[in-house]
Specification:
With about 350 residues, the protein is an alpha/beta fold. Helix content is about 50%, strand content about 15%. It has 13 helices and nine strands. Helix 3 crosses helix 8 and helix 6 packs across helix 10. The protein is elongated, with a radius of gyration of 23 Å.
Length: about 350
């Protein structure tokens, strides 16, 4: 029986290294504003992105490395990044953070939050304003993100997975390799004889994302060889639908007022009301209600037919309560610290 891989054109194989060059061609065609900063961990993905960008935009690329302080190997990651950037003649900006997670927070979310806070600081402190920041996440990362969202019962924002481009703190962020499989990136590096750092935590079955990568993605590859492309298409559809919902929520919030009037909320359908409430809580207060919290809030709004009806519900990291004829949100007061 002929192996499927022998019938697959090289350009369609997940390990075709030319996909890296095509992805950078597509990125360059969008005229990114230099200078460029590459988030550089020393791993395969960011190493390939840094090398490709340094070749295409010589003298206009810098590297940003964040030392998370989470494992002993992090010191060697930093030394590797210093050596490679010195060889390439690429300026390297280092930032050390304490990325330990708080109680109830996932280690991955905590590391991401601290990492992007470090990027914000590096962008502010850069002597030359950075045109855009490049992140090296790839097609397998996108699939893993989508599967994680599905496993948690996420709505459209989660199913949209990771955008290829977005703004943060006034800086443009891009993921040029988001359509490129991880195997193609490693093949591209091996063809050039380049080395990279392997993060030991990436092999730990403790993390669900790692189990998806090592157990689920090979099964998907065997059954649905084009799953990266089709999953990315579904994520793009979800992102487009979420954009429409965002526009509708902004329109409805403008009509209901800020803070939203209860009577105006009650006049909306349940779906539009939920869409507006999620938008208001997140955009105005950075609060993300759970499904149960949002449902409880809507029950209270439906019951709020008299001036004496009180509302005070835990939502996100604070409380929604009634104030006159409107809803307001306030952060929960900090817990008192023990002196003992």
């Amino acid at each position: 029986m002929t192996k499927p891989t022998e019938q697959t054109p090289a350009a369609n194989r997940p390990d075709d290294p030319a996909q890296v060059d095509r992805a950078l061609d597509a990125f360059a065609a969008q005229s990114p504003a230099p200078p460029l900063a590459v988030a550089f961990s020393g791993g395969a993905d960011s190493t390939a992105l840094l090398l490709a960008c340094a070749e295409r935009w010589p003298g206009q690329v810098q590297a940003w490395h964040v030392h998370h302080g989470l494992q002993a190997a992090a010191d060697e990651f930093e030394r590797h990044c210093v050596r490679l950037c010195a060889r390439l003649g690429v300026p390297l900006q280092l930032r050390r953070v304490d990325a330990r997670h708080a109680r109830g927070e996932s280690p991955e979310d905590a590391a991401r939050r601290h990492r992007y806070a470090a990027f914000d600081a590096l962008a502010r402190e850069s002597a030359v304003p950075v045109g855009c920041v490049l992140i090296a996440q790839h097609a397998d990362d996108q699939v893993e993100t989508l599967l994680l969202a599905l496993s948690r019962g996420a709505g459209l924002p989660g199913l949209a997975a990771m955008p290829a481009r977005w703004q943060r703190a006034g800086v443009a962020y891009w993921r040029p390799l988001l359509a490129v499989p991880g195997a193609a990136i490693r093949a591209w590096l091996r063809a050039r004889g380049e080395r990279w750092i392997e993060d030991p935590s990436n092999a730990s079955p403790r993390y669900l994302r790692n189990r998806i990568r090592t157990e689920l993605l090979p099964a998907l590859e065997a059954v649905f060889p084009q799953f990266r492309t089709t999953f990315a298409r579904s994520a793009a559809h979800a992102a487009q639908a979420q954009h429409i919902l965002h526009e509708q929520a902004a329109t409805d919030l403008a009509a209901c007022g800020t803070p939203p009037a209860i009577a105006a909320l009650r006049a909306l359908s349940a779906a539009r009301q939920a869409n507006l409430l999620r938008h208001w809580l997140h955009s105005a207060h950075g609060a993300t209600p759970s499904t149960a919290q949002l449902a409880a809030l809507q029950v209270q709004i439906a019951a709020c037919s008299t001036r004496g009806h009180r509302i005070r519900l835990k939502v996100g990291h604070g409380f929604v309560r009634r104030q006159g004829d409107a809803l307001v949100w306030a952060a929960a007061p900090p817990r008192p610290t023990s002196n003992g």
